[in-house]
Amino acid sequence: MSHYVAPTFAGAERRLGLDTSPNNNDGAINFGRRSGDTYLESMIASASPAKLRMMLIERGVEVARHLAQVWRDNPGKRGTNEHSLKLFEIITELLSGVTDNSVEVCRTVADLYVFLCQHLIASEKNGDASMIDEIRLVLEIEAETWRMVCMQESGQSPAKSRATELLSEGINLQG
Fold first, then answer.
1. Helix or strand (DSSP H, E) at 69
2. Distance in angstroms (rounded) separating the CA atoms of residues 67 and 90
3. Is residue 141 pLDDT above 80, yes or no?
4. pLDDT band for position 168 (50/70/90)?
5. Is the pTM of this model over 0.85?
6. How far apart, in Å, are the Cα atoms of 115 and each of 16, 28, 136?
């Protein structure tokens, strides 16, 4: 009995950043799709709910990293942009997958995603790249957790994780 809902396949290409439009001019092949898109689509179609969630979180990490870099490289272009909107969309999609409010861990995870949304909105007001780095760090820890879940699903034993290393270094996620 899972209390998380995986992102649905319908629209997963868009949430993971794939351009499936027929007018895509990015070296388009296969009816407007980039060569790697077909592979990613097949991964999405065959992925377990945990793997889909992990993929979405990993995409959030990438978007956060890119957003922070854009703000650092272009101090005059800070604030809301396509990258911050994509990050917000990913975080809200992750939040929508937490469905059982009667379970304490689900409430805690939902609160975490609400906090990340609020933190993102606050960072847009002043273009603070370090706040985006904080969001990225939380998402990296979350991705590591889901990597371990996926490894357990496939019968592999996880090695010492980055999350374990960070927590042993005394990172405080309480604020």
1. helix 49-73
2. 13
3. yes
4. low
5. no
6. 22, 38, 13
Rg (CA), the chain: 17
**Tens digits of per-residue pLDDT, 82-109?**
999 999 999 999 998 888 878 888 899 9
- How crowded is the C-beta side of 118, counted as CA atoms within 13 Å? 6
Q: How far apart are CA 64 and CA 89, in angstroms?
A: 12
Question: Which residues does 153 contact at the CB level (< 8 Å), separation at least 6?
Answer: 48, 50, 51
| Of residues 11, 8, 1, 16, the one with CA closest to residue 106 | 1
Task: Kindly report, residue by residue over 56-78, the tens digit of the pLDDT.
Answer: 999 999 999 999 999 999 877 77
Q: Which residue carries 């993929």 as its tokens? A: 55
Per residue, the 3-state secondary structure of 101-153, as one string, reads: CCCHHHHHHHHHHHHHHHHHHHHHHHCCHHHHHHHHHHHHHHHHHHHHHHHHH
